[in-house]
Amino acid sequence: MPPEPRPASSFAIELPTALLARVRAGDRAAFEQVYRWFERPVFTLALRICGDRDEAADVLQETMLKVIDRIGDFRGESPFWGWLRQIAVNEALMKLRRGRRHADELPLDDGFEPADDLAPPPPAAADAVLLQRALAALPANTRSVLWLYHAEGYTHEEIAALMQRTASFSKSQLARGTRRLRALLDPETSPQTEAAHA
Known about the structure:
Blueprint: H1 17-24, H2 28-50, H3 53-70, H4 80-99, H5 128-136, H6 140-151, H7 156-163, H8 167-185, H9 191-197
Helix pairs in contact: 1-2, 2-3, 2-4, 2-6, 3-4, 6-8, 7-8
């Protein structure tokens, strides 16, 4: 069975060459247009990783300030959106590391072995409010792995590099996080079943 295609990132917005040239030249109106195009994906990614709207707003601002400061570093060897997304991910993970208010990840001592071929979260995850609540209930690093893997299409190796961990850490957090997310989103799951997975 062929592997499922990676999800398209919400950042996958093509930036016209002329608009990019105007941004490089310091055209404020051009940058404001770029800001409007990428505001929602940057904020959403930051919210999913940080779990806090105020922190996500800070990440959005820091990301866009870095884009202004570093626009000269963008060489055009990859899509602009990929370059901007990398800045946003780095800013969100830095904010997460500075916060460290919650347990970082789900425990590894429950005897659960991660599957290599993990299914995405259940259909209830399509409900944005339910998904937000369920993600907010997960530990920060677990939530970050889930979002980077399922929504942004990062590989375990890429996540490991971003989080300064191993690929097996990413795989185990994905497996445990997906299982916990399923329990939180599935109305058929009893409280006792969820408690057994805690």
